[in-house]
Amino acid sequence: MKKTLKVAAVVLAAMIIAGVAFLIVVRGQFSAHLKEAYPGKTFSVGFVIVDPISGNFVSKADCLDDYTNFTVSKSWNTKKISDNYPASKSQMQYNAMTGDIFEASPIIVEIESVTGVGKKPFDGSGNFDQINFYLADEKEHASDIEAILRILDASGIEAQMIICTYEMDKHVYVARLSSEDYGLSSDEIKNRIEMLK
Question: pTM value?
Answer without folding.
Answer: 0.75
